[in-house]
């Protein structure tokens, strides 16, 4: 009989252990399901965030475009008035002033470069001219004006740079 009791005890302890393991498995399944739901909610929130940001960026892009198009419309109207005016010089002066005011408002500044040393960061050399009695890498002419915006390069100045002519000595 003692073997039967031992077997019954072993069976009972095995059943308790199995039930305990089943409870553990059920608990883990429940936890996994909760985490899975949290992950899906987070993913959905992230997708909604992406859509909101995309809409906001598109809105901002449209607003910036609208702002600059309104400025261009004003300039277009001034050009038409200048074209129709008997003395277009006054209208052209007004237009230039409006453009300069716009540049100032947008913090766009001209790069002054004639007589300055060539700097590849803000200048683009179109031509190099050999000259006597001049300094190397000195900007002697500006082909196209350069500009900065908020102290960052918007467009480099296109320039002509001097190079000191070397005397050729024959041996």
Structural class: alpha+beta
Strand content: 15-25%
Total count of helical runs of at least 4 residues: 2
How would you sum up the major sheet?
3 strands, antiparallel
Rounded to an integer in angstroms, the radius of gyration calculated over CA atoms is 39 Å
Number of strands: 6
The general outline is elongated
Strand order of the largest sheet: 1-4-5
- What is the helix/strand order? HHEEEEEE
Number of domains: 2
Helix fraction?
Answer: 55-70%
Mean pLDDT, all residues: 88
Q: Roughly how many Å apart are the termini? A: 126 Å
Low-confidence stretches: none
Molecular structure report:
- With 171 residues, the protein is of the alpha+beta class.
- It folds into two domains: 1-106, no CATH class; 108-165, Nucleotide Exchange Factor Grpe, Chain A, domain 2.
- 59% of the residues lie in helices and 20% in strands.
- The protein is built from two helices and six strands; from the N terminus they run ααββββββ.
- The chain has helices at residues 2-84, 88-105, and strands spanning 108-111, 123-131, 139-144, 146-149, 152-155, 157-164.
- Helix 1 (2-84) packs antiparallel against helix 2.
- The model has no long low-confidence stretch (mean pLDDT 88).
